[in-house]
Write a structure and sequence with these properties.
The protein is globular and about 80 Å long. The model has no long low-confidence stretch (mean pLDDT 94). 45% of the residues lie in helices and 13% in strands. The strands form 5 sheets. Strands 1, 2, 5, 6, 7, 8, 9, 10, 13 and 16 form a 10-stranded mixed beta sheet that branches. Strands 19-18-17-20-21-22 form a 6-stranded parallel beta sheet, sandwiched between helices. Strands 3-4 form a two-stranded antiparallel ribbon. The longest helix has 28 residues. The protein has 701 residues and is an alpha/beta fold. The protein has 3 domains: 84 residues, no CATH class; 316 residues, Rossmann fold (3-Layer(aba) Sandwich); 276 residues, Glycogen Phosphorylase B (Rossmann fold, 3-Layer(aba) Sandwich), CATH 3.40.50.
Length: 701
């Protein structure tokens, strides 16, 4: 947040830049980004595309110059008019706001409080809610050390690096009371009493409220509660989730926000249901009535495809917080404990997913296949004799964030008109992709590929300046060839995602990457959870291969993977690869992001790809159970697809040098994936299936 003195450095004529910088609306509106670049391109780069920090870096003379530049002012006026018109649109008619709770929100790299896919989905959801004028508020935590950054040692091992975030350099503003003081909450059940402050990030029209315990009033060990995302310490994790759920609901109450609907994105914020029940009881309802009303107005989205993927807290640990909370507010402790007890394993502890399942009328998995898997995992969970029904609402991506803006979006504007922006979920609009000449689409793709390789080279150069070993610099992608078929694999490194399936037969792989006429190169990127030793070993395995001269520099591992690099990757590689062990891919949205940029998906038929694969928009393999050595079978199918179909299609060129067959598949990927797997379609489903019916039940006793 800029100080008053820093704001006054900016002439009144262009002081709207301050408000725009503090609203992440600019992140998905290309002209707004162009405005900041035009102001000072070097400061834009030095700030890592963070306008709040950028405005601090710029000299006062440049602001004066910009305020007198007719060309800059014309762009400024256009952007500000669009911004103000968007924010002033009337909201969709709804009984009250939808409170969307999540442990992480991945909106942009300038707000680094996310780890991966769950947070990116949450960020995309808030952006789409803004586009749809849906009355939603986000609730999460702000982590003073963000999520882990990993740098690769010379031996290939990823080292965890935690960096303290400067809240004042990020698009965060403290929520103030009517008296102008920072809003401070007392979180119940802690001894000594725990305080939390509330910050706000603005996502277009949508406020995102973020709590932190890293405040001076707290003891050092309590300040640490909100320091790191997904801490491995079990009690610290419970405290985080208590602050997120109970504290998040109290924050809304203090701000005068009464949600009509509660949407829990995964089980981490499920303690919000405790506080929601308590608040309903304060309004005069009995415990049974409060539970019923909370349940009737709650949506729970589960993402885990494994029972072990949920948080389970020992009863003795939970009791330290639940018992004093119940005693203070007259809640029946035993009844609440029972709601979080799995009937098939009652001694395991308090299961956050089971608790959320029982107290949510509306429950969904994040793909058709995942809902089927979830129903098997959680079969037998019931509430008052009624078994929990798990439906499917397949995840989507925010197209205006993930379709590359400089060239791909402009190409769509040219041939699809404004309809793709106004009705992104209309398949008829996307049929117009056929109008794009092959040579134009291919030229745009090659430009994005070169941009990706240049970005990797720039990152490698920076690491070289920081003292990284020369062999590491080569492994970061310094030798990549823009003319070679380029595969991309970027996601969290963990065993079930099998990032090493491409490495199963090293000699077969070596022949593919060193073929003098039709070479293949592979870019890997991702992080492992700090506690996931096997995931870190997989990174080391890939990185050592990237340093091996036998593979001719055609395998690269991109260090410090983040949302910024992801946008280069999904638009810049030729083919996106996904190789999870089925049925463990709940959804897997990275392939959607690639497809909408014209990058075909080569994936195991699991998660969303089971619904998205048509036979002409990418390649699929490995559906269902396979007896024997599953890895050997899947790797063999993957190599055969590459050798027999992918590589020939890419290198088969017409007289004009364009691979028209491959471009045909690029167009099919865009046409079939964009309308079906966008957040517009996803939020419409939530609205019709869950939000509207839940809102009607707000007054149910």
């Amino acid at each position: 947040m800029l100080s008053e003195a820093e704001e006054k450095r900016i002439p009144e004529r262009i002081r709207g830049l301050v408000d725009l910088a503090h609203n992440l609306w600019w992140t998905w509106h290309p002209r707004a980004r162009r405005l900041f670049r035009a102001l000072d391109y070097q400061a834009w780069r030095e700030s890592t595309h963070n306008p709040v920090l950028m405005l601090r870096l710029i000299q006062p003379a440049r602001f004066v110059e910009a305020s007198q530049d007719p060309e800059f002012l014309a762009l400024y006026d256009e952007v500000m008019a669009e911004y103000q018109a968007d924010l002033s649109r009337p909201s969709l008619d709804f009984p009250g706001p939808i409170a969307y709770f999540c442990a992480e929100f991945g909106v942009h790299v300038s707000l680094p409080i996310y780890a991966g896919g769950l947070g990116i989905l949450a960020g995309d959801t808030l952006k789409e809610a803004s586009d749809m004028a849906l009355p939603m508020v986000g609730v999460g935590l702000v982590y003073s050390q963000g999520y882990v950054t990993q740098r690769i040692r010379e031996d290939g091992w990823p080292e965890d690096v935690h960096q303290v975030l400067d809240h004042s350099a990020h698009p965060l503003q403290p929520v103030l009371t009517a008296q102008g003081r920072p809003l401070t909450l007392s979180i119940p059940a802690f001894d000594p009493p725990l305080k939390a402050r509330v910050f706000q990030a603005r996502i277009g029209r949508i406020p995102l409220f973020l709590l932190t315990t890293d405040v001076e009033e707290n003891a050092p060990w309590d300040r640490a509660i909100s320091q790191q995302l997904y801490t491995t310490d079990l009690e610290q994790r419970l405290k985080q989730e208590w602050v997120l759920g109970v504290g998040g609901m109290r924050a809304l109450k203090e701000m005068g926000i009464s949600p009509a609907v509660l949407h829990l994105n995964e089980g981490h914020p499920a303690f919000a249901l405790l506080e929601r029940i308590r608040q309903f009881m304060d309004e005069g309802l009995s415990f049974a009535q409060a539970i019923q009303r909370a349940r009737e107005t709650t949506i729970f989205t589960t993402h885990t495809p494994l029972p072990a993927g949920t948080d389970v807290f020992p009863f003795s640990l939970l009791d330290r917080y639940l018992t004093p909370y119940c005693q203070a507010h007259g809640l029946p402790r035993e009844a609440l404990l029972e709601l979080g007890t799995h009937p098939k394993d009652p001694g395991a502890g308090f299961n956050m997913t089971v608790f959320a399942l029982r107290l949510s009328r509306y429950v969904n998995g994040v793909s058709q296949k995942h809902a089927e898997v979830a129903r098997k995992i959680w079969g037998g969970i019931s509430f008052r004799g009624e078994e929990v029904n798990i439906e499917a609402i397949t995840n989507g991506i925010h197209l205006f964030t993930w379709i590359e803006p400089l060239r791909v979006q402009r190409l769509l504007d040219k041939y699809l008109g404004s309809d793709w922006r106004e009705s992104p979920d209309d398949p008829a609009v996307w049929e117009r992709v056929e109008k794009i000449p092959d040579e134009e689409l291919w030229a745009v793709h090659l430009e994005r590929k070169e941009a990706l390789i240049s970005e990797l080279a720039a990152r490698a150069r920076k690491r070289w300046q920081q003292g990284a070993p020369a062999a590491n610099i080569l492994a970061f992608g310094s030798l990549l060839d823009p003319h070679a078929l380029t595969l991309g694999f970027a996601r969290r490194f963990t065993a079930y995602k099998r990032p090493d399936l491409l490495l199963y037969d090293l000699e077969r792989l070596r022949k593919l990457v060193t073929d003098p006429l039709r070479p293949v190169q592979i870019i890997f990127a991702g992080k492992a959870h700090p506690a996931d030793i096997e995931g870190k070993r997989l990174i080391q395995k890939v990185f050592r291969l990237a340093k091996d001269p036998n593979f001719a520099g055609r395998i690269a591992f991109a260090e410090e993977y983040d949302q910024h690099l992801a946008r280069f990757l999904v638009a810049g590689v030729d083919v996106w690869v996904n190789t999870p062990l089925p049925p463990l891919e709940a959804s897997g949205t990275s392939g959607m992001k690639a497809s909408v940029n014209g990058v075909p998906h080569l994936s195991i038929l699991d998660g969303w790809w089971l619904e998205g694969y048509t036979g002409t928009n990418g390649w699929g393999f490995g559906e269902g159970e396979i007896p024997g050595d599953r890895n050997a079978c899947d790797a063999g199918n993957l190599y055969r697809l590459l050798e027999d179909r992918v590589i020939p299609l890419y290198y088969e060129r017409g007289p004009d040098g364009i691979p028209h067959g491959f471009v045909r598949m690029m167009k099919e990927a865009m046409k079939t994936v964009a309308p079906r797997f966008c957040t517009r379609r996803m939020l419409r489903e939530y609205l019709e299936k869950f939000y509207k019916p839940a809102a009607v039940r707000t007054e149910v006793p």
